[in-house]
Amino acid sequence: PKGTISILGLGAMGSAIAARLRDTGYTTTVWNRTTAKTAPHAAAGSTAAATITEAVQASDIIVAVLLDHASIHANLEPAAADLKGKVLVNLTTTTPNEAKTTATWAAEHGITYLDGAIMAIPEMIGGPAARLLYSGDENAYAIARPALETLGTAEYEGTDPGRASLKDMALLTAMYSMFNGYFQAAAMMRTVGVSAEATAQEVIAYNGALLPHIAHYAALIEHRDYSAGQSVDFTRTAVGSLITAAREQGVSADALEPLARRLDELTATGRSTADWISVIEQLTIK
Ligand code: NDP
Fold first, then answer.
1. CA 238, CA 228: separation in Å to the nearest integer?
2. Which of 29, 70, 186, 254 is 20 to 30 A removed from 48 (C-alpha atoms)?
3. What pLDDT score does 130 carry?
4. Which residues form the 6-phosphogluconate dehydrogenase NADP-binding domain (predicted)?
């Protein structure tokens, strides 16, 4: 056996993680609020713990995969004394500030804390496409790393415990915006009977070709070089037309209105000739 790991939480993700750790040779103990979910894991060779305390006492590394920040604190705080001196890897999705709060709480109780963010769905766990981001205590990462590397590609983002989740949330923000853009396009095209599939193929081709252009924008944003490029004025007209066209089809233009507002702000403050990508400067809440 490679080592002892307890997995707290056997939802879709916790189950996939427990199975992978067990299959790769770790001695696993599992706990779940709804006890029945431990049965298939016990049948497959894990030890089922009746209480969280029992689960924590059984292993050196504790992996928590609960629902959210509140469920982590509700369940782990009563077990703080038992967690003392152990490595706690929290893979539950939380915001960066929540991760920092949990790290502070852990430090106060002598718990070595690593925060994680899972960039994968349960089916991907254990495969090369699964990326898991970690941040927090370096020693916790060093200790847990061999086990964490069995779950997918492990990437350590530094000692700031909130960093992994910040990156996760930034990437998810870009992802949701992309899909939302497709929903908007499909809603417009289906007003004339074009299928969602047909629009999907068009969006994949058009947006797919443009996606690498992000790197070009990145270089300009990095140098805050907004002197050339497509102007605010031009883009404001273009986006205005998109909003009008959506409404003409009886489709909401909510997806684009915030961008139109940012462009209006730039115009109102005398920056109508600047590169439109300067909208990024309008995003920071002052
Ligand atoms: P599920 O809904 O399948 O499972 C939720 C788990 O949390 C269950 O074990 C549930 O226990 C437990 N739980 C919920 N509330 C409480 C509570 N108050 N006290 C104790 N246990 C509680 O979710 P997933 O497994 O899919 O997700 C788990 C975490 O992983 C989430 O933070 C999610 O954001 C993250 N994640 C999930 C991904 C996915 O694709 N599924 C992708 C990336 C991250 P019970 O069985 O008793 O209800």
1. 18
2. 70
3. 97
4. 4-153
This prediction's pTM:
0.92
**Fold classified for 4-159:** Rossmann fold (3.40.50)
Average pLDDT for residues 186-209, to the nearest whole number?
A: 98
Q: Map out the domains of the chain as residue ranges.
A: 4-159, 167-282
The residue contributing the CA closest to ligand 1 atom 40 is 121
* pLDDT for res 81: 98
Distance 30 CA to ligand 1 centre (A): 14
- DSSP conformational letter for 126: T
- Per-residue confidence (pLDDT) for residue 175, from 0 to 100: 94
What pLDDT does 193 receive?
Answer: 98
Nearest-angstrom CA–CA distance, 275 and 150: 45
Nearest CA to ligand 1 atom 33: 93
The reply to whether ligand 1 has any atom less than 6 angstroms from the CB of 10 is yes
- Please indicate whether the domains covering 4-159 and 167-282 agree at the CATH topology level: no
The Å distance, Cα 91 to ligand 1 centre, comes to 10
| Both tokens assigned to 249 | 């089809």
Which ligand 1 atom is nearest residue 13's CA?
Answer: 25
For residues 62-67, give the mean pLDDT: 98
Residue 59, number of CB atoms within 10 A of its CB = 21
* Ligand 1 in reach of 93 Cβ (< 6 A): yes
Q: Which CATH number is associated with domain 167-282?
A: 1.10.1040.10
Q: Whose CA is nearest to atom 14 of ligand 1?
A: 67
Q: What DSSP letter does each residue of 188-203 carry, written as one string?
A: HHGGGT--HHHHHHHH
Indicate if the alpha-carbon torsion angle 178, 180, 186, 188 is positive or negative.
negative
* Burial category of 280 from C-beta neighbours within 10 Å (exposed 0-12, middle 13-18, buried 19 and up): middle
Looking from the CA of residue 10, the nearest atom of ligand 1 is 9
